Amino acid sequence: GNLVAGVGAGVARDADTCFNLIIGCNAGAALNQGDQNILLGCSSGNDLTSGSDNVFIGNRSGATATGSNLIGIGQKAGFEFTGNYNIAIGQDAGYLKTSGADNVFLGRNAGYAQGTEGCTTVIGASAGKCSEGGCNALFGARAGLNNASGDFNTFLGFDAACSSTSGSNNVAIGKAVQLPSLTGDTQLAIGAGATT
User: Fold this and answer.
1) Are 33 and 12 in contact (CB under 8 A)?
2) For the chain, N or C: smaller number of CB within 10 Å?
3) What is the pLDDT of residues 110-151, one digit of tens each?
4) Using CA atoms, how far apart are residues 47 and 51, in angstroms rounded to an integer?
5) CB 9 within 8 A of CB 28
6) For the CA atoms of 115, 116, 120, 126, what is the dihedral angle to 10 degrees?
7) Burial grade of 14 (CB within 10 A; 0-12, 13-18, 19 or more)
């Protein structure tokens, strides 16, 4: 059975939609095949039809998500998740993340614009906010903020490589440390505000 409460919540469910907890106006409204989901909050998991084993908690968290094994906690966290095995915790974390798997976004606006790549870990408020690259490790508020297309980067520290716009295989460690080239590949910068 399912536990459902709220106007429009779980309205599309049928006999084979089982073991779901759906609470909130329009939460899980389209769910008709998915099982073992927890959808709490207005419009959380609203467009989810057949996804299973998802947890969306917060106003509009995972509202247009369609995958399985997803976690979105916070207002609009994981809003557009379509891949599997992704985690977004914080307001607007992973908001535009569509496909791709094994991503973690933790913090307000963390990984906000993440596109289709996978295997990225972003921790910190606005870290990787404009980033769409894959396999990046971004730790610290605003780390990799503007790195729109780089892959395999490691940015560690407040504002680390926040001005970098592209480039792959880069490492920036330290408060506000920037890479020598904002679009280059295979660079290393360590220190506070250092560029070499």
Assistant:
1) no
2) N
3) 999 977 889 999 999 999 999 888 899 999 999 999 999 999
4) 10
5) yes
6) 10
7) exposed
